[in-house]
Amino acid sequence: MITENIFFIMNIIGLLAFAVVGALKGIKKGLDLLGIIVLGIMTALGGGITRDLLVNTIPYALRSPNDMGVALIGVWCAIVIFKVFNEDVSNKYIIQIPDAVGLSAFTTTGAMIAYNFDVSFFGIIILATLTGVGGGIISDILLQKTPSALTEDFYASCSIIGAIAFYLAILSNLSLEMSAVICSIVVLMIRIVAILCKWSLPKFYSEQK
């Protein structure tokens, strides 16, 4: 029951945060209301659906009566945020902070699902990371952008580190609940520090001929 409660809480947090992020991206891009809703929903649900398909199960988002409603609430929150802050919505922190929260929550749910399906160490990392960044990748593709998870900041790396922390906690005989909490804290803290310190991975450029 405790494990189910933690998964439920993390899932709700991730859905709300990523729906807000996706909808704000749509607003900044100048999409109409339908476009904003679609982008918010796909950002919120995309990572979890991808994860569940990889473990050969019906996506949780399609089985849960709550996920779509929570995503729509997140879209509504984004519109309220835009109305309140108006032009200040262009401030990158208004998107980056909820995005960090969503990344933390969804990386954790991905790691928990991976553990329940008894996949390997690398399987845990892959499923946790895809759950965390999958929705953002889908939203960027819909906006005809190169996914920011692959080009900007220290982002997907936070999920990878969090998944490793989760695995090490499990190996240390900590409970699944405690391992999930450790994973979420590690991802959130590293992502916040990365934002504030402007961390990024090295890039390699080829000379154009």
From TrEMBL:
Predominant cellular place of this UniProt entry's protein: membrane
Membrane topology: Multi-pass membrane protein
Organism domain of life: Archaea
Residue ranges the record marks as coiled coil: none
GO cellular component, one term: plasma membrane
Assigned keywords, A-Z: Cell membrane, Membrane, Transmembrane, Transmembrane helix
Record-annotated membrane-spanning stretches: 6-24, 31-49, 69-85, 97-115, 121-142, 154-172, 178-201
Subcellular location field: Cell membrane
Boundaries of every Glycine transporter domain copy: 9-81, 97-168
Name this polypeptide is given: Glycine transporter domain-containing protein
Organism this protein belongs to: Methanococcus maripaludis (strain DSM 14266 / JCM 13030 / NBRC 101832 / S2 / LL)
